[in-house]
């Protein structure tokens, strides 16, 4: 990816549907690489990350949604939850198209995110336990630290309570990561 330019471009409304589909495919690809086609870590529609989850993140007024562009081609996306008072920000979603993996695009995009929000004191994010590429990326490339593991006996306190537990709603085991930028 030498001499290639990675930029973040605010999501255009006419790209919303493709952003959602690309995001779902990127997460589905990761699950297929780990578990094969017999993946039992999906929701009712066979998705690792539901349309509802993505849309909720995109539609939250405090969030910012960007396309990751390589030159002028969309190769991924990012959704950021920005808290302008505490500067404790959350990386809601970051994905790179599977065909663009291993080219430094995710790291370049993360550097662009940090440059976009230099006021950030703390970045936080989560990823499913089986996403080894993501865990490597956040810890070894971006400088995050694993601070918590959510599972059946240690639920994420920020997750909405489920009305009825459902075994087929996707991964419920997640790592939480934190990167302290400045105290």
Beta-strand percentage?
25-35%
Helix content: 25-40%
Largest sheet, strands/sense/barrel: 7 strands, mixed
Secondary-structure-based class equals alpha+beta
Total DSSP E strands: 7
Order of helices and strands: EHHEEEHEHEE
Strand sequence of the main sheet, in spatial order?
1-2-3-4-5-7-6
Quick recap:
The chain has 183 residues and is α+β, with helices and mostly antiparallel strands.
Task: Write a structural description.
This protein has a seven-stranded mixed beta sheet with strand order 1-2-3-4-5-7-6, with helices on both faces. The protein has four helices and seven strands; from the N terminus they run βααβββαβαββ. It has one domain: Aminopeptidase, CATH 3.40.630.30. 28% of the residues lie in helices and 28% in strands. The chain is α+β, with helices and mostly antiparallel strands and 183 residues long. The protein is globular, with a radius of gyration of 16 Å.
Keyword list:
alpha+beta, 183 residues, Aminopeptidase
Topology:
Layout lengths: L5 E5 L5 H20 L15 H9 L3 E8 L2 E9 L6 E9 L8 H12 L5 E7 L3 H10 L3 E6 L23 E7 L3
């Amino acid at each position: 990816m030498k001499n290639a330019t990675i930029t973040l471009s605010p999501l255009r409304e006419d790209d919303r549907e493709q952003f959602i589909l690309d995001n779902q495919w990127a997460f589905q690809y990761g699950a297929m690489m780990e578990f094969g086609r017999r993946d039992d870590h999906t929701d009712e529609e066979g998705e690792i990350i539901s349309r509802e989850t993505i849309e909720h993140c995109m539609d939250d007024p405090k969030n910012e949604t960007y396309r990751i562009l390589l030159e002028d081609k969309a190769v991924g996306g990012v959704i950021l939850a920005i808290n302008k008072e505490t500067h404790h920000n959350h990386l809601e979603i970051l994905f790179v198209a599977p065909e663009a993996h291993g080219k430094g695009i995710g790291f370049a995009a993360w550097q662009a995110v940090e440059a976009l929000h230099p006021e950030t004191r703390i970045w936080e994010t989560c990823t499913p336990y089986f996403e080894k590429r993501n865990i490597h990326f956040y810890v070894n490339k971006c400088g995050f630290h694993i601070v918590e593991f959510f599972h059946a006996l240690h639920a994420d306190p920020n997750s909405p309570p489920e009305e009825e537990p459902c075994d087929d709603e996707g991964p419920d085991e997640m790592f939480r990561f934190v990167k302290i930028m400045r105290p």
